Known about the structure:
Layout: H1 16-58, H2 62-65, H3 68-97, H4 102-125
Helix pairs in contact: 1-3, 1-4, 3-4
Amino acid sequence: MTERYVSHQQPGQPTERDDGALTDRRRRLAWLARAAGVGLSGVSIAFVLLVVVVVGSGGELTLITRPLPMQFALALPYLIGILTLGTVAGAVPAWRYRYWSLPARIHHTLLALLGLGFSWQLATLGFLAV
């Protein structure tokens, strides 16, 4: 006689295997959200420093003549915009699924708000065409 496994789970409940896949997906989303936040911070600081150094060494005409370092700096606002969207998109499920502790979620949300503000400033100043 063959024994069959009979599940005592309610229909619609995730199985152990489904729950593990869901946990892995949440870990990946948490990692991507944190990576977007770290990338946003790093690229934003690099943009500001690079613009200050290039304009400081070349004068105001670097905005018109656009040497190679300035061309590189002017490409960074688009990356900042993309990373801002990733950071904001990562903040929503971080609150919903409680990826991190409360201070970490507040920190990530503040980082997303600062990214939105910085992107808005970049668009206002003409660095980011929207």
